[in-house]
Amino acid sequence: MIILPLPHILIFSLLLFAIGIYGALVRRNIIGILISIELMLNAANINLIAFSKYTSLAPETGQIFALFVIAIAATAAAVGLAIVLALYRVRKTVQADEVHLLKW
Amino acid sequence: MPILEIAAKYTTYAVMAVILVFALGVVTLRNLFHCALCLAAALIGTAVLYVVLQAEYLAAIQILLYVGAVVTLVIFAIMLTEHLAGKTVRQNNSQSLPAIAGLLGFVSLLTALILKTPWPVTPTALQAKVLVMGLGKALMGDYVFPFEVISIVLIAALIGTVVIAKKDQPEEKA
Amino acid sequence: MTITIPPTIRGIEFSADMLFVTAKAWILTLLGRFLPDWLIVLASITISGVVILCLGPLIMMYLTLLERKLIGRIQNRYGPNRVGKWGLLQPIADGIKMFTKEDIVPAKADKVVHLLAPIAIVVPALMIFLVVPFGERMTAVNLNIGLLYFIAVSSITILPIFMGSWASRNKYSLLGGMRTAAQMISYEIPMTLAVVPVIMMSQSLSTNTIVLTQEGSYDMNWFIFTPWGIVGFVIFFLCATAECNRPPFDLPEAESELVAGFHTEYSGMKFALFYMAEYMNAFTLCGIAVTLFLGGWQGPFFPSWLWFSGKTFVLICVMIWFRGTFPRFRVDHLMGFAWKFLLPLTLINILLTALWQFTSNLAAWLWSILILGVSLWTLVKLNRTFVPEKRHYLLES
Question: If you count residue pairs, one on A and one on B, with CB atoms under 8 Å apart, how many are there?
Answer without folding.
Answer: 219
